[in-house]
Amino acid sequence: MRGVVWLVLIACAGILMYLILKKHLGIGWFVVFGAHMALAAIALYVINYSGWITQVYIPINPVTMGAVTILGLPGIALLLALKIILFGQAV
Fold first, then answer.
1. Residues 6+ away with beta carbon under 8 Å from 48
2. Is residue 79 a contact partner of residue 64, using CB atoms and an 8 Å limit?
3. 12 membership: H or E segment, kind and range
4. pTM of the entire structure?
């Protein structure tokens, strides 16, 4: 089962690289995406440790960083809303 997961991962990565190179997006796309990921991590860190929103902790992991990277500030609002709705934490 583990081998199948690795095979799917490698196949998806290969297809993604093919599409990126086919559209001539180049390395600039990776730089912009990396900058957005870094800013997402910084935003989550600031939310967690600044004390602006008390009693709420959003873990910094690939899923939360991906949501904030793709959605931006609405992604942070989405994560906060999900945390409050699913886990019943009052803000």
1. 57, 58, 60
2. yes
3. helix 2-22
4. 0.60
- CB 60 within 8 Å of CB 45: yes
How many degrees, rounded to 5, is the angle at CA 4 between CA 2 and CA 9? 95
Residue % of the chain over a pLDDT of 90 = 3
Exposure string over 57-82, b if 16+ CB within 10 A, otherwise e:
ebebeeebbebbbeeeeebbeebbee
Are the CB atoms for 71 and 78 separated by under 8 Å? yes
Cα distance between residue 90 and residue 71, in whole Å: 24
